[in-house]
Each structure stands twice: as structure tokens, then as C-alpha cells.
Amino acid sequence: MRIIPHPVTIRGTPLAIKGLDQLLIPEWPYILRWMIEGTQKWLRDGLKPPAAVVNATRYYFAAEDEFGGWLSTCCRVWPRPAWTDEKTGKVHPEEEMIKDGRNQPANFTALSHFKESFDRWRNPSDDKSIKGIDPTTLARKLRKKGYRTEHTRTGTVVWGLKIREPEVKAKAH
Description:
The chain is of the alpha+beta class. It is built from 6 helices and 7 strands. The strands form 3 sheets. The protein has a 3-stranded antiparallel β-sheet. The protein has a two-stranded antiparallel ribbon with strand order 1-7. The chain has a two-stranded antiparallel sheet with strand order 2-3. A hairpin with a 2-residue loop joins strand 5 and strand 6. Helix 4 crosses helix 5.
């Protein structure tokens, strides 16, 4: 889908010109040639929309992507998906725990923390009529964005993603 900006409003102009079909009869061969050449160019080169259309489409989808807005505003990618032990030189894959200064796992976060963050961001006034996101839906959306989830004894975790500090900012309305 493409968004085509149309910033012009025409007021007081007749939208139909009486007898236009008859006026264009002598132009039909040229119009047909123009259509055929345009189709050939499109088939050869593909659709190359102008920058205004590309930008309007990007802006529209960015504004409609509530989940992506929360992800970019409230989360950060863990900077070391794989890490090297400085003492042994051993390269550890993402799946192995990295301990932070408090000896806590530092390269994954509980899905429940992301759910709380997303629900607060989406509903900063705590309106009871707005339902929170289902954890299964949240995990699916995170996987679709390229993050790995895993079920553990203590719950579902998300690898390589953290909630930004300080805690979540409210979405602008």
C-alpha cells in the first residue's frame, strides 16, 4: 500500500467538463500510446514512487505502529548478544547468562516486565476500559521484530532486549 499525499483542495471548480469525452476523441491514439509506453516502462523498471509518496507512506505506517513506537521509546537492545570471557578468551553465545554487578542475569528480561511497560506506555492514565496486551500476543510481536523468547521455570524471558532506564515514558497523545 502507498500513501499518496494530496495537499490541494479545489473549491468552486466544476469537476466535470461537459462534452470532454467528445473533445478527447482526436487524442485517443496519443493517450493509448502514452498508456502502453508507461506500462512497458513499469514492467521494465518497476514502480519507482516519488520521494513524497515514499515519505508519506513511511510516516503513515510509523504513526500506525503502536508496538514499534513503544519498542523504540521504552526498550533498548542488549549490546552484547555474544561475549568473550577476558580471562579464558572463550566466546560465549547469547544463550549463556551474563552477570551484571549484582550477579543478576543481564542479557534477558522477563516477558512480564515488557507487558507491564507496554501496558503503562499504552495507557498512562490507567483507564480501566483499555485492556492490557495479552502476553502471548506480546511474545509473538517481539519474535516478529527478531527477538527470541524462551519459556523457563520462572516464566517466559526475552533475550537481547532490556527496558530503558529510567522507567517508561508515557506515549504522547
